[in-house]
Amino acid sequence: xxxxxxxxxxxxxxxxxxxxxxxxxxxxxxxxxxxxxxxxxxxxxxxxxxxxxxxxxxxxxxxxxxxxxxxxxxxxxxxxxxxxxxxxxxxxxxxxxxxxxxxxxxxxxxxxxxxxxxxxxxxxxxxxxxxxxxxxxxxxxxxxxxxxxxxxxxxxxxxxxxxxxxxxxxxxxxxxxxxxxxxxxxxxxxxxxxxxxxxxxxxxxxxxxxxxxxxxxxxxxxxxxxxxxxxxxxxxxxxxxxxxxxxxxxxxxxxxxxxxxxxxxxxxxxxxxxxxxxxxxxxxxxxxxxxxxxxxxxxxxxxxxxxxxxxxxxxxxxxxxxxxxxxxxxxxxxxxxxxxxxxxxxxxxxxxxxxxxxxxxxxxxxxxxxxxxxxxxxxxxxxxxxxxxxxxxxxxxxxxxxxxxxxxxxxxxxxxxxxxxxxxxxxxxxxxxxxxxxxxxxxxxxxxxxxxxxxxxxxxxxxxxxxxxxxxxxxxxxxxxxxxxxxxxxxxxxxxxxxxxxxxxxxxxxxxxxxxxxxxxxxxxxxxxxxxxxxxxxxxxxxxxxxxxxxxxxxxxxxxxxxxxxxxxxxxxxxxxxxxxxxxxxxxxxxxxxxxxxxxxxxxxxxxxxx
Length: 611
Ligand code: SF4
Fold this sequence. Notes:
Elements: E1 3-9, E2 15-20, H1 22-28, H2 31-42, E3 56-59, E4 74-79, E5 86-91, H3 95-101, E6 106-110, E7 117-122, E8 125-130, H4 139-150, E9 155-158, H5 161-164, E10 172-174, E11 178-180, H6 185-191, E12 194-200, H7 210-226, H8 229-234, H9 240-246, H10 267-274, E13 275-279, E14 289-292, E15 294-295, E16 299-300, H11 309-315, H12 324-337, H13 341-356, H14 375-387, H15 391-395, H16 399-406, E17 416-417, E18 420-421, H17 431-439, H18 478-497, H19 507-518, H20 524-544, H21 574-588, H22 598-603
Helix pairs in contact: 1-2, 2-18, 2-20, 7-19, 11-13, 12-14, 17-18, 18-20, 18-21
This protein binds iron/sulfur cluster.
């Protein structure tokens, strides 16, 4: 099964279509892996994230658009303005399927337009349309204007005003609902003066054996629905109370793991008070996308969905805010401006801790009382960050850069890995996740990571790797590191194929799905190898851009124990982390400096020359 690649050069206006060899499609399976393959060929260490030569790659996966549960996803990749390394972020919804229906597996955009523009893709008809009038408008306004012109059924990926302003943690929003949130991909769009990509496809997605695929769907749909009831009812917000009870709900900038206001932020509370309907991604029966509407202290329209777990914890417990209306308003504002809610929440929590400890004063914050728990301050700060006003200008650079400007001493409050702010999963609850943050090619990232608490009563999916006993979530030994290597490779593969991690497909099901779509007669080990190839190639790109092993680390805060709560005294010591890192390098076939060996590259069929 060959692939189709659409090249768009915004500088020269050249548009061309190429085939992607079947061998490459099979080795990378689309998504993150295919993007890493092209980024490794199109960039060198002198290309900066916001240079026009930096490619922006939208890639569907082998599974995208196949209509199995979880197949409505795609990946966006580039060199990140937040980390200066490879980044890839995956989004659900309908945009990925529409790319596939338009006939493309991958879209590579290079160059930059001189004025604000958008790209219109209607099957083979691809146009670059200059439109300065959309510049500076909110994502809602741009979404409405484009739909007025091209009809309601188009699918729209866009950066917001934050991306136009090159804020390094701006995101790409799809149909105002689904986000490629991490890594600052919105700023890469903004640097190209590319406000949106509008897609309408009319082709059928190619499937080799439709009857087989339909049988897999039919045989599994009941189990998938029955095993996802909490997700369907509450969305990802359903995990708030469970994490709080375990002592791992990130609170007050990761100082604590239990939040006294958790109940007000729970999925149950959100659903009962503010959810008016549930939406879904293409082909998915789980429907885990709730939509909120509020007409009260805050007015929140249903146009921007509802906050997911990461957003609730980032703008809520992390900032000690227990006002769900304010969190919903913050979610709406981040969508309108095009800001990643995870990084935004981390930046605000960092600023609150700086304020409480005297590193910022009212004079610095333009009179905002920036204390933990001040929900109005949280909402005001989102406006200031997006508009780069006052203190917002410094905070719009992300916690790493902000700490360098405000006071080097505030590095202790800057929760990031390689410049990317931490997702809302506490490493002192999930030790494997902590190691995963440290070594991920995309900085602190939960997407291709391991949630240790899934395996502390039953090894579940880990049985596929020969692990038949449960593992304590708060342990980081060789066995845990081995589990992370294999499980994370699986998740990297899922982000290549691009299949949603929430859908409880078994490994066997996934092999069958790939076979039905491609007739490749694959197996589980080939799929794991795809994941290892993708993460190793991403690491190669990073090493050639200057990555050093000392950057594979965690913020110091996690080597200090919690002083109270169910996780009292839990910490990941530096020695423990360094030992686990060494094991990780060995198990991945990297040398003692974390550089993939020649033999490893050969075994993964990676053709990469370090500069
Ligand atoms: S489980 Fe949720 S996020 Fe995943 S594909 Fe289904 S609706 Fe989308």
